[in-house]
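Quiz preparation item.
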């Protein structure tokens, strides 16, 4: 019998979605920045965002989350990468040929300090 997702994972997923929804237009943040704020690993954030439902993908500004060096992920599906680039450009971000966001410091969205949280203990 397959095991259900843990309550900790459900809480982490909900918080990733909440934080991504708060990133304003014309700004971006990184997988690592979200992870540090949440006290999880960046791969947890990437895992959640890579598995958005079509409804979540349509309503959430997922395109505003990029790699640590302010670069669109080179590992992303090519069509999805083009969509991310198009959406970010529509918000006024400049992106070079290699996928790096230009003037990144001016557009970075800081989430706040690291939270001291143990997700396995969250109700």
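Solution:
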């Amino acid at each position: 019998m397959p095991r259900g997702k843990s309550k900790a994972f459900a809480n982490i997923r909900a918080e990733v979605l909440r934080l991504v929804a708060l990133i304003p237009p014309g700004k971006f943040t990184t997988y690592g920045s979200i992870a540090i704020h949440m006290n999880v690993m960046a791969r947890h954030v990437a895992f959640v965002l890579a598995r958005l439902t079509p409804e979540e993908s349509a309503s959430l500004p997922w395109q505003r989350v990029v790699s640590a060096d302010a670069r669109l992920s080179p590992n992303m599906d090519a069509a999805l990468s083009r969509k991310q680039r198009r959406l970010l450009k529509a918000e006024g971000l400049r992106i070079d040929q290699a996928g790096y966001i230009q003037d990144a410091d001016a557009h970075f969205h800081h989430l706040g300090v690291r939270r001291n949280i143990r997700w396995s203990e969250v109700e």
